[in-house]
Amino acid sequence: MYGNGYISPEETAKQKPDPLAGEDLQQLALFEERIARGEKIEPQDWMPKEYRRQLIRMIEQHAHSEVIGALPEGTWITRAPSMKRKLALIAKVQDEIGHAHLLYNAAETLGKSREAMINDLLSGKSKYSNVFNYPATTWADVTVIGFLIDGAAIVNQVINAKGSYGPYCRALERICYEESFHLKQGHDALVHLAVGTKEQRAMLQDALNRWYRPIIHFFGPSDKASVHGTLLMKWKVKMASNDDMRNQFLDQYVPKIRELGLDFPDPKLNKNAEGVWEFSDPNWDEFFATINGNGPCNAERLAVRRWAEEHGRWVRKALINPSQKQVLPLS
Amino acid sequence: MKSFDPRVNRIKPIEEKTEMNIGEAWEPYEVFHQKKRGDHHIHVGSVHAPNAAQALLFAKEQYGRRQNCVNMWVVRTADVTQFQYDDADIFETAIDKEYREAYGFKVRDKINAYKKQQTESK
Ligand SMILES: [Fe+2]
Ligand SMILES: [Fe+2]
Questions:
Q1: Between chain A and chain B, how many beta carbons pairs sit less than 8 Å apart?
Q2: Which of A38, A188, A282, B39 gives the lowest tally of CB atoms within 10 Å of its CB?
Q3: Residue B58's domain spans which residues?
Q4: Complex ipTM, two decimals?
């Protein structure tokens, strides 16, 4: 699921005044021409340091989001309301971990080891999608995640799959194929509640109320004005602005909630005459606080992840082949 | 830390620093799958594993849990030899390579000319 549509503020602050300082201009021109022609960049190619840095950051955050994203849903595997739902949820959660694997691989081709990425997640240095720092408190939350969060992620991932870095595009293509199942099973489970008893509908509406703001936050704050964004767009690292992706998502999904006689808790949520969705101020302070570690579940998510690493260590160590080589995956 | 998730409350989540050591994630293997008998094996991605047998197992989980698959290969990434993209010009066919293509050989015109000549000389 879960690309990250936003450029996290910390990274923007770290941004050097001239991200191209010291680059070989002839190589840079060839690199940019290749991208402009619609050709992909492969791991062995020359690339600007800033391209490499931004891609590692972005793909790594995406991978972490898949891993952490499995936690709120995983909570519900043992309590799924039927065998069919349980099987679907297990399959989905396994897919998400598989997505993390594909993405870590893609990031590794750029030169950062998997161990280093996991360590940056465990220490809190690397970010992951804000939505997973909220708890899934009822079964209805699982249906909202499966339909709307995965739906938002698909918007992001389909767009990014047209980017310039070969390994990331290949991973995303495979991921998008599996996401269609996530979306379908989520929609099915959500509709099941929506057409059910009064209690089921109320439970679903409550979940929609609680997830509305995190969903609006999902694509990140408006970044139309960012100069930094332009370079990344030219290099096809970033393929659409946060606002455009959010608008595409709202356009696709709000009607699918409203047709069920349900709605999001925002009287201002509406499409204006220009076809642009408007919504109330979603409190970006909350978004920044959550991204920076102060959301309701941040501490728990990382603590659980650390526990998993600690408790899996003996297996990993027992299997290590002393002659193993530290090489990068090919593609 | 009190969690909403009873499973989390049963374990003791670790709140202090934890680190993976370099090498703990093993090494990469490249994965090739064959969708049906008669097809080529096609590269689909890679897995991290401590040995080839384990790599096959992970490959099956990662790339064979959906859709058709009748066989898989895994190859240690470190054992793969490849060209460099910088040398891509070695594949350029700037000179005429018709001599090694089927379309480089056209006999019909010659045969027709010959037949015509034969008829006329009668
Ligand atoms: Fe995913
Ligand atoms: Fe998903």
A1: 125
A2: A38
A3: 25-121
A4: 0.91
